[in-house]
Every structure is written in C-alpha cells, then in structure tokens.
Queue: 3 jobs
Job 1
Amino acid sequence: MENKQIVITQFGEPEVLAIQSAEVPTPQPGEVLVKVAFAGVNPIDVKTRAGLGWAASQNKDKLPWVPGYDISGQVVACGEGCERFNAGQNVAGFIGFPLQGGGYSQYVCVPESELSLVPDSITLEAAAALPLAGQTAVQALDKGGVKEGQRVLILAGAGGVGHIAVQVAVAAKAEVFTTCSDVNLDYMATLGAHAINYKFSPVSERVTDADVLIDLVGGDAALDALKCLKDGATVVTIPTLSAELICEKAKLLGFEATGMLVDPNPQQLDTLIYMVSVGLLKTEIFKVYPMDKAVEAHHQIETGHTRGKVLLDMQC
Ligand SMILES: NC(=O)c1ccc[n+]([C@@H]2O[C@H](COP(=O)([O-])OP(=O)(O)OC[C@H]3O[C@@H](n4cnc5c(N)ncnc54)[C@H](OP(=O)(O)O)[C@@H]3O)[C@@H](O)[C@H]2O)c1
C-alpha cells in the first residue's frame, strides 16, 4: 500500500510543495491508523511553507516536512489498547500541532484520544473544515467572555475562523458585527451578522460601543477597530505577528487585551461536529483541491480572500 504525502521540500513559494511516497505507518499502542479523506489547509501551513513563524524555525532541519493539522477520514487499523474507535468508523482531528504536522498524508497514525467521531449525519468535508479554525473561533469567543446580549465585533467574518466565530457568537445570542468585502456582505447577513464593508469605510465609522473585539486581521484594521469599543471592553487578537502591538495599544486605552495560540481540544471538536449535525452550524467550503493541486490551494489561501475553508482531497 502506498502513502502519498505532500511535503515542503524547502521554504519558499507554493511551488516548493511536492508529493512523496512513504510507507503506511503502523499504529503504536493507543494509536489508530487513519486513511485520510480530506485535509484542511490553514494560513499557518502557508506561512510555514514560506519559512515564516515558529513551526518553520523548529522544522528547518527536518525538510522535507509534511504540513497539515486538520484531518478527516476512516479508521483502518487500531493499535494495542485502543478502546474508543473501531476500524470502519469516521473520525476527524486537530493533529500534530504545532510542531509535528503530518495531516497532508493519505495515511496517518494518531493517538485515539486526539480524535472525534464523525457521525453519518455530517460529511467528511465538513468535518475537515472544523478542527483548527473551529477551535480557534470557540477559544477566541471564550477568551473574550462573549455573553448573550453583548455587542461583538469580529474582523474578517467570512474567513475560515471568522465564519464559524460569527455563527457561534450568534448562537450565543450576542449581537454580531463583522467586517468583509462587498462580495461577502450577503453571506455574512445570512449568518445573522451586521455586515460592514471594510473597503467602503473604516469600521470605526460604522460600529460603536462594542463589548468584545475578536480580531482576525491584525495590523491597521485592528488598531482602527479599537475605536469601536466601549470602556472596559475585551480584545482578543488572533494573528500572532501583530498581537504584541495590538495588545499594547489596547491596554493603553484601558481595554483587557490578549493574544492566543489555539490549543487542540477534542471535546470542543465533538461539540462543533454536533452543532453541524443538528444544523446549528454550517461549514463553508470554498473549494476542494485534489492532492496533486496543493500548490493551487496554497495560492488560494495566499490571496487572503478565501470564503470559508480550502480542503485537499487526499483520496485521489
Ligand atoms: N493564533 C492562532 O492560534 C491562530 C489560529 C488560527 C488562525 N490564526 C490567524 O488568524 C487569521 C485568520 O485565519 P483564517 O483561517 O480565518 O484566515 P482566512 O480564512 O485566510 O481569512 C480569509 C478572510 O479574510 C477576510 N479579509 C481579508 N482582509 C480583510 C480585512 N482587511 N478586513 C476584514 N476581512 C478581511 C477575507 O474576506 P474578504 O474576501 O471579504 O475580504 C477572507 O474571507 C490568520 O492570520 C491566521 O494565521 C491564528
């Protein structure tokens, strides 16, 4: 049996991605072997491939390296002592984060404790869209202490993290404001948010008295959004590059402010899967690329204008 994997051969443009053939791994005690159906593509994969950030510096001597943290697929074998899953069950997980990666593989061994069951009522595509982005969304809203009735401003509501954050905040009965470009205004409105076209005017001219800011853009957009907040508001800034600057400025203005690094949590993924299965949450899949088009998938994420998620089909 062949195990094709997409590897970063050296740091650089998307064209440095290549397909390599590896052995199908054998599950160790407590691990299951997953035949991956879909792998999610996240901005961190793209940054690491470009040689930027912590995962790149930690893995620079380990190239070729297999990126990828989001998988969905089927359990095909169980290591000794496995009790949660049987061969034939569908699972999803947020795996190998942040240093190991490995999701862009046709077969991968994962400790069963890191996986969630995917019931028949949700597709494997939807399940692969949820792990990293969905947990970032939930953890950001938790850190922001978002509650019923609060005014919550989410920058970049149409992206992988944003489209889930908007829906979870709406489900929590917050009043949600979000920024997007003109093409996503209707989409954001259908999710229940007040949509603001950031290309038309700065968000600070359109929103006042927000209790919580969830910043998924960083830089100048985040600095402008601080003007939308009421006294004592909370800021959660997600892009790591500008987090220090935004937090410093926010604290000077008297806000509570924090950056964050998402922390894999299978119970949270169970909840997100449940929400999709009962129709409380809808994943938006921008495009599924066959695994031999991973270069195009990375180019798409680099546009910065993906609606929802990009996936790789690892079955072809
Ligand atoms: N710290 C962590 O643990 C962590 C975890 C996950 C993600 N992140 C970071 O969080 C950020 C968001 O991640 P993601 O996966 O959601 O990215 P993404 O899916 O690539 O985001 C794309 C979205 O951003 C929107 N956008 C671009 N520029 C915008 C602007 N100036 N104002 C408002 N919206 C804008 C686009 O909407 P339009 O097309 O309408 O412009 C598009 O829908 C990335 O920087 C990522 O690296 C950090």
Job 2
Amino acid sequence: MSERCEVVVLGLGAMGAATVYQLAKAGVNVVGIDRHHPPHNLGSSHGDTRITRLSVGEGAQYVPIVRNSHRIWRELEALTGESLFEQSGLLVLTSSAEFDPEDPTDFTLRTIGLAQTYGIEHEVLPAEQIRQRFPQFANVHDSAVGYFEPGGGFVRPERCIDVQLKLAEQQGATLYKGETVTGISSNEEGVTVTTDRRTLFANKLVISAGNWNGEWLGEPYENLLTVYRQKLFWFEVDENAGLVGHSPTFIFTHGRGDDKINYGFPALPGESSMKIATAQYHTATSAQAIDRTVSAAEARDMFEHQVQDRIAGVTSKVLKSAVCAYTVTPDRHFIIDEHPSLQHTLFVSACSGHGFKHSAALGEAFAQWCMRGSTDLDLSSFSLKRFEGKLS
Ligand SMILES: Cc1cc2nc3c(=O)[nH]c(=O)nc-3n(C[C@H](O)[C@H](O)[C@H](O)COP(=O)(O)OP(=O)(O)OC[C@H]3O[C@@H](n4cnc5c(N)ncnc54)[C@H](O)[C@@H]3O)c2cc1C
C-alpha cells in the first residue's frame, strides 16, 4: 500500500525546509523526507553562519531572489521570535599588488556595479577609509577598494532550517526524518517515491538532496555536479583588539585565483572567536567519501595563507573547526529545472556554495511551481539547457 500526498520533498536541508514550509503554509498536503535529522552537520547547511547580501556579485539574476529571502527571514522571525538574519554590515574588499581597477572579473568591482545598477544602499571605500573604519584590515594596499553594504550580514542556517521545519509540521506537513529515499519513478499520473520504509505516490516531487543530488540526476547530467570538501575555522580573537561587537561580515580578495579569497563573520559578544574560511575547487570528493575531520596541518595552513598579516587581532588558535561541502556546476551557477527524465519533478542543485541566502525565496518559488507549474521569480537562467552540447 502506498501513501498518497500532493507533493514529496526529497531532502530537508536549506532548500527542502523552505519548500515544505511554503507548501504547508499554502495548505498543500506535503511529505518531506530526509536521510538524517535536519538541521544536521552532514550536508551543506551547517556551521552557524552564512553570508547574505543584496548586491550578489555572482550575477544580476540573483538580486530579486535574495531580496525575497530577506523579506521571508524577517517574516519567520516575526512568527517565531527567533533571531535568524543579522544585518551586521557587509564589507567586500580587494587588496592586492595585482589589483587592476578596470578588471571586470574582480568580485568587489562587480559587487559595486550591481549595487549601483539596482540602487542598493552602499558605500565605496578607498584604502584609507577601510583602514580607519575596520582596523583589522589595516594592512591593505594603497590601491585597495572596499564595498560596504549596511543591510548585508549573515543568516543562521541551522535555525532557519529548524524554524521552517517546525512551522511546516505545525501547518500539517508530514516529515519523515532518518529515512532514505532509495528509488523514484514517474508516469503520466504522478511520481512514486520509495524509501527504506515506505512507498509514496505524489502529484509532484521536488529533489533537493544537496551533495547527494548526482545520483538522482542521471547520465549524462550527473557529471555536471562536483562535490568539494570545504573547511571552516573559528579562530580565537585577541580580546584587546576590539573586534568583538565591532567587526562586519566580510569577503576579502587578496590576489588572483580562488585560493586568494577568504570570508568571515563578526566576532560576536559572548563568543571569543571569528569564523574565517576560504573555498577550494581543485580536489573533488563525494557525499559518501568526504573526510569530515580537519587536521592541525590544515588549520596551520589556513592561518598562514589567509589570516596572518591580513586580519589583525585574530590569533592562530583554532577553537572549533568543521567540514562542509559545496556541490558545484561547471559555471558555478545553480541548476533549477524540471528533471530531464522524471515527469512532475523539479530538480534543485545544492547551489555551488552560494545558495543559502536564496533558499527562503527559492522555497517559495518551488512551492509555486508545485501548485501552478510556474514561479513569480524568473529562474530560467538556471535551466539545464545552458549545458546542451557541452555534456560528455
Ligand atoms: C562551507 C560552506 C559555506 C557556505 N557559505 C555560504 C554563504 O556564506 N552564503 C550562502 O548563501 N551560501 C553559502 N553556502 C552554500 C549553501 O550553504 C548551500 O547552497 C545550501 O546550504 C545547500 O542547501 P541544500 O538544501 O541544497 O543541501 P543540504 O542542506 O545539504 O540538504 C540536502 C538534504 O538532503 C538529504 N538527503 C540526501 N539524500 C537523501 C536521500 N536519498 N533520502 C533522503 N534525504 C536525502 C540530506 O540528508 C540533506 O539534509 C555555503 C556552503 C558551504 C558548504
């Protein structure tokens, strides 16, 4: 006997939690399934904080999405009393001997350009002002440029997932946690989802399985998704440096190439640490094989190459570390599209390491897709079509 529902959501991380919440809120009979117990630290949505900003240097197509997310985080805060979105202010800066102020690929310059185009409140800061206002970046080159977005900051991913799942359940969603989807098939009438405990039949399915997504996309598309292990570090701050309560969220480009960009979060009152990380795209892994421990050598390397002589007031002592994973497409943009072979199924990639800020709004859009087959947001640039002719 199979259970029946209107929609099944596979995976209840950032994307799935937002989707089941929006569906349940709209009165849809939805079942969410997760192999773990979200929020958990085995996917892509853990580590206390995620950057959010209106001027999304990754591309103009993201600006309307993140605007909707900011609205929804505030709605969720009002509903639950939880603090989810901290407008700590966001500093994006480039300081490098090789900096070319005409370089169209520079992340800070792209961010400034988008803010100007979309009328996003911001300030452009020359080196002197960066040093004055943010003494932790006192070592910047004279040619450095900064972008400060006062409304930017961070969201708390575990809390965001938790409140959306709780609200979804309160509004009638059924959530099966600790249960793994093992098979999917579809026909004209709907989708059959098999788990290690039951079979469900639904009108629609949303697949948002994060790092595990490759197994559901099928050949040749699965090759579009590569999983990269990432490390997060919470460095102890020098208590005399005045960083606690006075530091912004930041993205710091200090040279050319992925390994010359780091990002970090404010040192918050009550916490004597600053979370700082960088991203790597050279060594691939898989959801099954990922090494979840961070070695002392990795912590030392991070401090020496990303922190030392760049961010003042941060000591080399690591108070906490974590491993998380990006699932990245060849152009580092999202894949959001109807599944290439399964009917009635929407496929949502884990969003190439920059999806959390958009997740609340995307959940709202995915719920619209389930209910009426279209979305208010234009998601066409995330279609699989862009890879046609490029697949092996
Ligand atoms: C280190 C790091 C830093 C990041 N920083 C930022 C940032 O600053 N700003 C930003 O916007 N974004 C950031 N991101 C990206 C963002 O966090 C991700 O895009 C987003 O969290 C992905 O959410 P998801 O729902 O796709 O995946 P997940 O949250 O991982 O959820 C997938 C879920 O699917 C479940 N699942 C998988 N397979 C099955 C199955 N067979 N059956 C049942 N359940 C299954 C898993 O258990 C999991 O809970 C960062 C990511 C990482 C890793």
Job 3
Amino acid sequence: MLYNFDEVIDRRDTGSVKWHYSDETIPLWVADMDFKAATPILNAIEQVTQHGILGYTKPTEALYDAIIGWHGSRYDLSLEKQNILFSPGVVPSLALMMNVFTEVGDAVLVNDPIYAPFMTKVEQNGRTLVTSALKEVEGQYRLDLVDIEAKIAQHEVKLYLLCNPHNPGGRVWTTEELEAVLTLCKKYNVTIVSDEIHQDLTLSGHIFTPLLTLATGYEHHVVSLTSMTKTFNIAGIKGSLIFAKDNELLKKISQQQHLNDEYELNLFAYAAMRSAYEQGGAWLAQALAYIEANIDVTVRFLEEHLPDIKVMRPEASYLIWLDCSAYAEDDKVLYDTLRAAKIELNAGISYGEEGHLKMRLNVACPTALLLEGLKRIDTALSDVSKNP
Ligand SMILES: Cc1ncc(COP(=O)(O)O)c(C=O)c1O
C-alpha cells in the first residue's frame, strides 16, 4: 500500500503538544511527525475497540515474537522473551535506571548537547550531572573519548547515559566508537544505558548497531531502551521497551519497576506495538524515503537562502541541527526572532551549553508545510545582521 505523506492533516484543537497555538505558527520542533500512522496500526487499535472489552491485558506470545523478530532481522540483535521488559516510556526508563544503578549524589555522565531529559532526570533525581562535550569533526559529532575517560575517572561516574542514534545531532555511532565506549566503561566499572529510540530512523548509508550486540562479557552492565512510538509516530500511545541480557540485572530492573507498579502498558500500546513490528515495515520505508527527500529540500534551501547556517546532516532521524551563530549572538534573541516570524524550532541551548546559538529543526511534515516554514526562517534571519 502507498501512503500519502503530502496530506496536510489539521492537528489544531486536538490537544497536540506540537500544534498548541491559537495563531498561524508553523511548528517544526518537538520530535513528532505530521504523518498519519500506518494503516495496520490503526486497524489493530480499531480491532481492540471493536472487540469492546478493554480489561486488564498482558503481553502475548505473539507480541514477544514480533519484538524479537523485528530486532533480530533488522539489527542482528538476538533477544529472548526473558530479555524484554515493558515500560511506559523511554524517559521514565531513564529515571528508573538512575534508581537501579545509582544512589543520590552519584555521578551520571551524559554528552553535551543531548536530548534535555537526559540532564533533567539526572538532576531531578538528585544525582550529579557530569557532561562530556561532543566534538565537531567535518560537520558531524564525535565522542571525545579522552574527555569521557577523564570525566569518568575524576567524578567516579557510575552510569553513562548514551544516546544512539544521537539526538539532537543525528549521529549514528559506529561499531568502533561504541566498542571504545564499552572498553572505557569496563575499565572503570561504569554501567551504560543506551537510549536507542531513534534506531529505526537510521537513514540510507548508515548502519545502526545496538550496543547489546557488542556487549559480550559485559552484559551485566549494559541496558538498552527503545520504543515503537518514535519510529511509527505514535508517541501519544505511550509505551517502550527495556532490553538486557543479564538475568540478575533484569531482576534488579524488574524489582525497581514493581515498586511503583510501572512494568506494563495499556492494551492499545500492546496492540499497536505488535502490529508495528509485524506489519509496519512498508510504512516505515516510505516515511524514511519522504524524510530523506525533505532533508535534501532543507539542505538545498538553506544553502541557497541562508548559506551561513551550518547544517549538520542527520545520519538518523528527521531532526536537523542548525548552527545559526552567524545570525545571532544571543539564544533568546535567536529564538524570539524566529517566533516573531511565526515559526517554532527547538532552541539549541535547551540541549546543553554546546547548543549555544543552535536550533533543532523537525522536517517530518508535508513538504509544502516544510517549505513555508523554511521561508519564514529565511524571512526572520535574513533581516538579522550580527553587526547592525
Ligand atoms: C532520545 C530520546 N529519548 C526519549 C524520547 C522520548 O521517549 P518517550 O516518549 O518514550 O518517553 C525522545 C523523544 O523525542 C528522544 O528523542
């Protein structure tokens, strides 16, 4: 079946976080796509309501098979049922991991820039946030392994929250980079939690490697988090997965989940997850092709109209990291300038100090809407001069 990603669907007045405005703002910010979900997923949800009984529900064997099948065939990640736990979301899992692996006051390492909840959950849970800035090399982020080791040693880091693929930079860490990180963590006995929620949005020419496939011999210190919600644009459904290979570790995580009874999903999430992993591949392939075309459109537009914006082309995801430092000196002024032109992007500074004068642009929307948004960015920034 062919999907029409050009269709503009009105999301105003639906409670949408992305489209909350009362004016004509174009929202190209939060990581949520303006595309209708895959038909098999919508059908699966409809089947649940048609059945009509919405009682307590647990994951079925067919759901476990779907999860195992998807990750095995796409990423060579071999999972068994006992390696899989359910969680209401990846961010809740990040908070959970803090409580499984660390005590109040312990140091937790994250990269900078990083998806903001990596930082806020560490701080809100009373842990000490330690950051390691990513290095930009030839327009792409690299992990600074020397700095990571120094920070681990200096702060006696207990837990490293890694984001692979990286949000906001869109980098898909290579096998070599991941192995180097594992080597460092082994040396200092650091647990790694890898947030892999953007795994399925890896773009052509790049290969996503699940950290667990490299963790042989270190399984008791490695956990990965993922979800079908980002991949299939069903974030409102809520639901995610926790994978680990070590039984003791799984027991510890499961016990922590049971403290607050947060180990199960609602029946719509189970149904959506199963159909996504069983039948969502065709939608995903088409969505990714559309996203790649939108990335090309954006890169060309910016080269032509705002050549001083430095574009970090994503290796995964539909989020583009833009260095706007040629057009502003102050983060708030930059954000407000764009807002005044009725366009919303995420302010880079909310992803850490390395996000200074950067903006994150979401291109997962109909191309016509994207082009209108790009025109507004052009109008807003081309009037701005650093030296008035
Ligand atoms: C890296 C990363 N982790 C987690 C999330 C959110 O996960 P959830 O909605 O399952 O809490 C996002 C959403 O954008 C994300 O980019």
